[in-house]
Each structure stands twice: as C-alpha cells, then as structure tokens.
C-alpha cells in the first residue's frame, strides 16, 4: 500500500500509515484541512504522471546527482543540435577559494533555442497546433497564433532586426506589455543571436534608462500604450523620456520600434520622433517569413535580465543558450506534469524571469499551447481568471500567492460560478505560499483534486530548484517539498557549515545545474562576491529555509536587504536612494513588513533636511518620487517621519529595531542600549501613527 511504501522510503515518518486522516485522504476525501499534514495526489493522477511515485523520483534524482553528465546529456539529446557538445559535458568551479567561478554546460554544442522552440515543432507536424491564445484586457478581444504562424512572425521580426544592423551578441531592449509580440520578439532575438533584455513595462522611465545605459541596446522595442483594467498606460512617453535621459549619459538610441496598440491609443495621439520611431505594423509585415538561424555555442548569451540586489544598482543576470534550454524545458515538463494535450496559463509578465522561463521558453520548447493575458486579474471583476480558465479550457494554471490571496478576499462565489473542470495542475511562485492560501487554492480553485506545484527558484537559477513533482509527492501545504533533478540544496549555519537533517539556516546549492546564471553583466566580481563568497563552496540564494523531519524544504523569505512585494523583488537600497534623491529628504531607511495580500509591503523611515516640516503633501511627494524612479509596484505603503534613526555608535542603522517598530512589535525591540542615541526609539514610536 502507498502509505507503507512512503514510510519505507523514509518520506513519511514511521507510523504514518496508521494516522486516520491520511487513510481518509487515500480513500478519496482529499480535502486539505488544518490538521492534515499531507495531501496526496489521487491514484488517477499519479498513474498517468511522468513521475508517479516517490520511488521513481528518488531513482531519477539519485542518477542526476551521481552522474550529472550522463543524466543531462540524455535529456539534451532530445533537442536539435547542429553539432554535439564536447566530451566534457559541464565544467564547474563552485568554490571561490579554488579560482574564479566558471559554469559551463554543453560547451562546444551548436544549437539555437528559437529553432528548438518553433522550427523543430513545425517540422514535427505541430504547424497547426496553437502556440498562443491571446486574451485582451477587454472581454471578447482575443487572438490565436499557431506554431506555423509563430514561425512566420518570428522570422519577420528577426529579418527586420538583422536589416537594421542587429548582430549576434548585440543587446535589444524590449519594453512591451503582454502582447503576443512580446514572446515573438524574444524568440526573434534568440533566432539571430541578439541578447534580449526585457524590461517589465511597469518600470519607470528612470529604471528603463538605467538599463539602457548599462547594456547599450541597438534598438528599443515598445508599444504606444496598453490598457490594464480601466487604466491606460502610455508606454511610449515613458520610453521617450528614458531615451532622452540615456542620450544625456552618452548612450543614444537610433531606432525605437513601436507596436501600434490601437485599442489603447491612436497613432495620431502618439508622440513621435521622425527618423527614430518606427511603427511595427508599417515595417514588420513587409519582411520575408523565412529567416536563416544563427547557430550559436551553448554558452553564447541568450538574455540579460535585471534584478534587484542589496545595493541601489540592479544586477544584469546573464543566462546562456544550451543549459538554459535543456533546464527550462525539463523543469516545465516534470513540475507541471506537462502533456501535449494540456492548455497552460502562467499569469506572470514576460518582464520577469517567470515570464522568460515559463511563459516563453519552457512551454514553447515543449510545443505547448500557452495562454497570454494582457490585462488585470480582477477586471472587469474578480472572476476574470476563472472566466479565462473556462474559455480556453486551461489545464495547468501557474500564478503567485499574492494573486491567490487577493482573489480569496472577494469570496468563493467568484470562483465557484465557473466550472474549472479543465484544471489538472496548479502552480505557485514568487514567495512562500501561506498554508491558508494554499488550502483555498487547493480546495476552492482546484476542487480538491489538482496538485499544487509550489516552485521555489530565482532569476539567477533560470528554472525550478525545489518543487513538487505533482504525481509523485505527498504535499504539505506551504512547503516547496524537495529538490528538482540535479539540484543539491544545502542548509548552512552562520559560519557556512552545512547542517544535516531537521534544521534551519541559509539556503545554498552545492553544485551547478544547467540553468544557472553564468555571470552578472559586466561585473563578474560582483557575481562572485554576492553569490559565491558568503559561503565558500556554495551558491548562496539569499533565502532562509528550514528542512523538516521528512526532508521537506520550507522557504522562510529573504535574509538580505531585499523585499518581496507581491512576488516582485525590490532592493531596500533602491527605494532608499530614490527617497533621498528628493531634495527635502536627508536620509531614508526602508524595511519590509508583513502584508496580508502582498506578502510584504514597503515601510520607509525618512529623516528630513534640517528645518523642513513634515506634511501630508510631502508624504505624497516622497511616494511619487519612488513611483517615478522605480515604478508603481515599489511605492512605499507607509512613510514614517523619523527626526532621528536608531544607529550604532559607528553610525550603522539598526534595521532590526526599525523592523520591529514598523510591525508594531514594540515589546520585542530587544537591546537598544548600544545605540548612539537610545531616545530616538521612543520618539519613533510616538510618531508611528501620526
Ligand atoms: C525570490 C526570487 C523565481 C520566480 C519569481 C521570483 C522568492 C520565489 C518562491 C517559493 C518561497 C519563493 C525567494 C527567492 N521565492 N519562489 N515558491 N517559495 N519563496 O523571482 O524575482 O528572482 O525572486 O523569490 O525569496 O529568493 P525573483
């Protein structure tokens, strides 16, 4: 019997087989309740799954760790390679004390990820299969693109880019909303070996220009505007001002290709710079629908994606071609138990890593049908997501805990009035999913029959690292369960010593995996310092984590100066530097506080320039400054006026105390005696709600 089997595999504690609620689960009452620790996939699900038992998982996992070269080579052979990789499947130096960090997979192998995403499937008979269903912001506005049509359009864009002089290795910035043109453009860049850098179209012009200045793209690709919910966002205006700022910093942009999104804004109303700006619809359709592929080394860069760290300057995470291709495709297949008949919808924007690996590359490499949604999840009402699920018969639905929690607030009836019977697998990403949100997702959205893949990973990791395999694992609400093939997680203590068994500490990884990032753009030293020096011999994730008695991993959030707001990563230093750029702000200290829907929200302590009074108007202005410099998603929820900040005698701000004040845990302030001016603490508490 399954439970005894799990026990014997040491996946369940011994004696679990006699726990009544577990037996109830086995018998089919698969409701996720408070008391119950494990939620099992149904036998029906497990029997059809790629990996259908913990035993099979352990077999494969063991092989992936004992023989990574053999394990990954076998998987890589399913892709098209113009030339096979060298005998040394991977090189790795993961230990800074032994030299520079140098990760390579399938070096010498010649391939192209766009070819593997599109041409390969068209040639294999999938020409008429739908690649993308596009659902517009407004009800009833939609479009469909087959794999054959995708190939045509990718080729047209690729030909255009080549024609304007974009070559292998050149950067291209993409600042587009969730139109089909976004993944099309990514694939077109990949086809010609250009390195795309997608900037989430919610970033401000300042953030965009910072990225333009850093990677000096040949072209910026955008749209005039987009409608999200009932709001129109004028993207082209943001791009114009970013390009102007970049020019002042010596980086000029000659071409701004602009998609005419007529439903949001007319051409006549779009600000235009003749000579530089070009309408997508005026040029792209004129190009041929075939375009030769640029064959690339597996280690040629595929894209750059900027992410936040603990300093004010975003990091350009670099992913390369071959390993990323093999890893995103494989993780997608197993973590979602993907089958060719599935319809897959991931609610992430392509501007984040989730949209790179699990809207574009992972699913398209598998020949999947992907739903893209342009709009807001609660527009025109809180049932929109389930309306989309029913409309396209979505079977795999991948989203973020923040969305789950926000929809939970509207009540079950927005969910239950839709059928959702097409759903088969649910997924969660971006932050730890709290058990109550997990249960609601499982019981209400998934009708207690769809396993949830809670996938832990990062921009840096390229793909899933710790994730359930839905047919194999008994799940625990709130745990990302166990490592993916080839991943060896290690929990270390403060000194970097690995701890065994049940424990908590810092989450590290012991060896390279194919999807790992290879460097930070233009700053390999920062790459080593940030990720490989804190605990020599390991990659350090920046996350805290515990492992329970059954070997399950529980992520507990960032341990560095990074805040996670609605699954978006924001550096405290970035927000602080935006605040102090305001002429009336002398100093700022930003912390994250727990937030019911967003996970964390931004709480900013600000000290004003001498003699400046604090006012409501100034508060609004400070918030606006952050919106303008970073983007609306980084706006602080709370500005706390701080005539003084708690500092040590050496001048270091004691964030620990600020965090306690921000979350009003005033009886847990701890020792304040080492502060230079202990009285500032009381002053801050008095001003807390003013
Ligand atoms: C950080 C990475 C990777 C996709 C989205 C975010 C947190 C992500 C989980 C999860 C607990 C999670 C971590 C991580 N995180 N997924 N399933 N459980 N925490 O990518 O912007 O690079 O952020 O998001 O703190 O370090 P990212």
Describe the structure.
The chain contains 22 helices and 31 strands. A hairpin with a 2-residue loop joins strand 9 (about 225-230) and strand 10. Helix 12 crosses helix 13 (about 355-365). By secondary structure, the protein is an alpha/beta fold. The structure holds 5'-O-[(S)-butoxy(hydroxy)phosphoryl]adenosine. The site of 5'-O-[(S)-butoxy(hydroxy)phosphoryl]adenosine has 23 residues, from helix 13, strand 25 and strand 26. Its EC number is 6.2.1.1.
Would you kindly provide a brief summary of this structure?
The chain is an alpha/beta fold. It is 32% helix and 21% strand.
Coarse shape: globular
Tell me the fraction of residues in β-strands, as a range.
15-25%
Mean pLDDT: 93
Hetero groups in this structure are: 5'-O-[(S)-butoxy(hydroxy)phosphoryl]adenosine
Strand order of the largest sheet: 5-4-17-16-18-19-20
Biggest sheet statistics: 7 strands, mixed
């Amino acid at each position: 019997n399954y439970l005894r089997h799990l026990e014997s595999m040491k996946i369940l504690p011994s004696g679990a087989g006699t726990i009544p609620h577990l037996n109830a689960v086995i018998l089919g009452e698969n409701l996720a309740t408070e008391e119950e620790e494990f939620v099992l996939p149904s036998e029906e699900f497990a029997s059809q799954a790629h990996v259908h038992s913990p035993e099979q998982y352990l077999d494969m996992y063991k092989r992936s760790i004992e023989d990574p070269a053999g394990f990954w080579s076998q998987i890589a052979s399913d892709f098209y390679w113009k030339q096979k990789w060298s005998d040394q499947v991977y090189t790795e130096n993961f230990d800074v004390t032994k030299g520079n960090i140098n990760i390579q997979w399938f070096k010498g192998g010649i391939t192209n990820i766009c070819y593997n995403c599109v041409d390969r499937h068209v040639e294999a008979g999938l020409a008429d299969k739908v690649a993308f269903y596009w659902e517009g912001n407004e009800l009833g506005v939609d479009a469909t693109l087959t794999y054959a049509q995708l190939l045509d359009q990718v080729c047209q864009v690729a030909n255009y880019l080549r024609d304007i002089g974009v070559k292998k290795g050149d950067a291209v910035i993409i600042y587009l909303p969730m139109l089909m043109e976004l993944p099309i453009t990514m694939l077109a860049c990949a086809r010609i070996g250009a390195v795309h850098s997608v900037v989430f179209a919610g970033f401000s012009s300042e953030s965009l220009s910072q990225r333009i200045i850093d990677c000096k793209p040949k072209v910026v690709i955008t749209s005039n505007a987009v409608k999200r919910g009932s709001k129109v966002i004028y993207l082209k205006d943001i791009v114009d001002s970013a390009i102007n700022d970049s020019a002042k910093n010596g980086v000029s942009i000659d071409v701004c290709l602009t998609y005419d999104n007529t439903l949001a804004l007319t051409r006549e109303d779009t600000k235009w710079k003749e000579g530089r700006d070009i309408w997508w619809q005026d040029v792209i359709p004129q190009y041929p629908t075939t375009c030769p592929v640029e064959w690339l080394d597996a280690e040629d860069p595929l894209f750059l994606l900027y992410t936040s760290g603990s300093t004010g300057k975003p990091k350009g995470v670099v992913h390369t071609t071959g390993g990323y291709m093999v890893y995103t495709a494989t993780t997608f297949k197993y973590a979602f138990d993907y089958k060719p008949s599935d319809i897959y919808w991931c609610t992430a924007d392509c501007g984040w890593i989730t949209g790179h690996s699990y809207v574009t590359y992972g699913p398209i490499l598998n020949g999947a049908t992907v739903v893209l949604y342009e709009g807001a999840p609660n527009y025109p009402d809180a049932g929109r997501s389930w309306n989309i699920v029913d409309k396209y018969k979505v079977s795999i639905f991948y989203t973020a805990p923040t969305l789950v929690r926000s929809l939970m607030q509207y009540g079950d009836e927005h969910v239950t009035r839709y059928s959702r019977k097409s759903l088969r697998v649910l997924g969660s990403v971006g932050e730890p999913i709290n058990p109550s949100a997990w249960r609601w997702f499982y019981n209400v959205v998934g009708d207690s029959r769809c396993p949830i893949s809670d996938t832990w990973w990062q921009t840096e990791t390229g793909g899933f690292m710790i994730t359930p395999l839905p047919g194999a694992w008994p799940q625990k609400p709130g745990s990302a369960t166990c490592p993916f093939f080839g991943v060896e997680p290690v929990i270390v203590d403060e000194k970097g010593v690995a701890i065994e068994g049940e424990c908590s500490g810092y989450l590290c990884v012991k060896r390279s995996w194919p999807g790992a990032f290879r460097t930070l753009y233009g700053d390999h030293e920062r790459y080593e310092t940030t990720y490989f020096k804190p605990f020599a011999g390991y990659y350090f994730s920046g996350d805290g984590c515990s492992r329970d008695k059954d070997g399950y991993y529980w992520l507990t959030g960032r341990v560095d100066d990074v805040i996670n707001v609605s699954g978006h990563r924001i550096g405290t230093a970035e927000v602080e530097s935006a605040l102090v750029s305001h002429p009336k702000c002398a100093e700022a200290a930003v912390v994250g506080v727990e937030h019911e829907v967003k996970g964390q929200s931004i709480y900013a302590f600000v000290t004003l320039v001498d003699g400046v009074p604090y006012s409501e108007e100034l508060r609004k202005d400070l918030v606006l400054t952050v919106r303008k410099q970073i983007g609306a998603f980084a706006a602080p929820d709370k500005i706390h006026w701080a005539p003084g900040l708690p500092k040590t005698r050496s001048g270091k701000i004691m964030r620990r105390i600020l965090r306690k004040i921000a979350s009003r845990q005033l009886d847990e302030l701890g020792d304040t005696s080492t502060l230079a001016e202990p009285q500032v603490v009381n002053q801050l508490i008095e001003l807390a709600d003013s």
